[in-house]
Amino acid sequence: MQAQPKVQLDFIDALRGLAIIGVLLSHAQRNVEIYQAMGHQALMSPWLSRYAAQGARGVQLFFVVSALTLFLSAGKRSREDTPWLNFYVRRVFRIAPMFYLAFGVYCLVPVLLKGQALPPLGTLLGTLSFTNGWNPAWLLGANDVVPGGWSIGVEMSFYIVFPLVFLALRSFPRALAALAVFLLLAVLTWPWLLNHPPIDDAELWQRFAFVWLPNQLPVFLFGICAYFVMFGHAGKLSTFFREGDRRRSVCWFVLSVAVLALVPQWLDDPRAVFLYAAAFALLALCLFRQPYRWLVNRPLQHIGKISFSGYLTHFFMLQVARKALATVHAGDRLSPDLYFVATAVLALVGTVLVSSVTYRFVEVPGQALGKRVIEMLAARRARDARSAEGAAG
Q1: Got the DSSP string for 307-338?
Q2: CA separation for the pair 241, 55 (Å, rounded)
Q3: 267: left (phi over 0), alpha (psi -120 to 50) or beta
Q4: 9, 218, 226, 231: least buried by Cβ within 10 Å?
């Protein structure tokens, strides 16, 4: 099923870099227009506001890339003695150390130093145990525990079902069929879900119905289909994106960029998220075929490498940027558009600096600890096997 890749995967980190920059831009836009960081009500230029707001689709780009890389990793490690136990150990130690540090900074410190109240117990426990993805209040309330915690809840929900997805979708035709089915279901059932909320809070239900895993599953499936085109057997598609005419690849690249450029200005429908996901998958395929140096470069790759830390730290750096701009009275001197740019630049620089540190001293040691846990479990199984053989002899 899996063909071992013989190419550099630098474009993966570049895509992650684009994703975190997009998310940061969307939150910088909220700082200006919703949180009124300028000190007064302010509106950016409509076209710029729409583009910045849709930077939130960087989360979906993360989902596409995550599904692609999970399939790649699972295929390479399928011959381990306990591949799925090892999978969950790796995932926990990949996510938990930095997430719990963020919990301490965003949730515990204000409680201890400012006397703020803790979030509801259910939300707190559901978020910290990564089981919050199926409860509307817990999933969206996760943002009160760790900002942006809802998307990590969705990602972890996908991890829970991933072994079943991997075992069921063993080929490109199956992955494509699953994408078609779940995409059709998501698009057609959306109006019905909104009109029949099972809870009293219709607004909360609408937000939950958009972000929960069943609605986001087609986004992950776009990434899985891209995986099979890159590394599996998808017929002429695989041949084209591995060896085809690079000039035609440029045309597909332009198409993906055109979708990302036009959708924010023309469509204001939550279901447009699937157009973004399709464009992201196509963009990944084009960069796999031709990793343009102006896009797949060391600075963007580094931002992508530290993007998980960046996702958790950029909220704090936006606050730092807001306070820094306030000290020079930038809200009185700059237009909303320029204030947005200044906020985004300052927050991005701070995020890269802080996240480089947390990646080195929190994420990397956490992943190393997960590797040691896997080795310890393997050694214990080996000892048990030898003991059993000795007893039998």
Answers
A1: HHHHHHHHHHHHHHHHHHHHHTTHHHHS-HHH
A2: 27
A3: beta
A4: 9
CA distance 224 to 96: 25
Gap between the Cα atoms of 88 and 249, Å rounded: 37
Contact 226, 277 (CB under 8 A): no
Q: Which tokens hold the place of 232?
A: 């599996």
> In terms of Cα–Cα distance, which of 332, 234, 253, 323 is closest to 292?
253
Q: Are 14 and 301 in contact (CB under 8 A)?
A: yes
* Count, residues in the chain: 393
Instruction: Count CA atoms closer than 13 A to 387's CA, side-chain side.
Output: 6
For tokens 């994703």, what's the residue? 19
φ and ψ at residue 291, rounded to 5 degrees? -75, 90
Whole-angstrom Cα distance, residue 33 to residue 45? 11
Is 53 in contact with 24 (CB distance < 8 Å)? no
pLDDT in tens, the chain (393 residues): 444 444 468 999 999 999 999 999 999 999 999 988 888 889 999 999 999 999 999 999 999 999 999 999 998 898 888 999 999 999 999 999 999 999 999 999 999 998 889 999 999 999 999 988 888 989 888 899 999 999 999 999 999 999 999 999 999 999 999 999 999 999 999 999 999 999 999 999 999 999 999 999 999 999 999 999 999 888 888 888 888 788 888 999 999 999 999 999 998 899 999 999 999 999 999 999 999 999 999 999 999 999 999 999 999 999 999 999 999 999 999 999 999 999 999 999 999 999 999 999 999 999 999 999 999 999 998 887 788 777 766
- The angle subtended at Cα 239 by Cα 238 and Cα 245, nearest 5°, is 120
Alpha carbon distance 313, 388 (integer Å): 49
